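Batch job 17 of 40 flagged for manual review because the log was empty.
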Amino acid sequence: MKKIREIIFYKNYFEDFFETLSFKVKNKIDEVLFMMTIIERVPVKFFNSIDGVKGLFEIRIEYESNIYRIFCCFDKGNLVVLFNGFQKKTQNTPKKEIEKAEKIMKEYFETKKGVKNE
């Protein structure tokens, strides 16, 4: 099976979230992340852009009656960089979670720029 995208983790944000989850939820997240690497057009049910934040996306996972979100961005076209994740408990994505993801995304690109300039 040919990979369309590669997924990487930025710092420990995703791993710290992932480690708090049950085995079954981790498996569901793994399935969705794998699907993202092999499907050309990922359905909106699993992946969508964040309104008002250019370049920020959320990966959507539902397991039983729980909803989880993982923020990410693209880099170099087919590289997906994972940031923070959380369990969604309200209808709307909490503003503080979006702001945190936006901050992490800026940090990622600034750090990357800094590495190139050294």
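Reviewer: the log was empty due to a logging misconfiguration, but the result itself is present. The CA atoms of residues 5 and 76 lie 10 Å apart. Unflagging and moving on to job 18.
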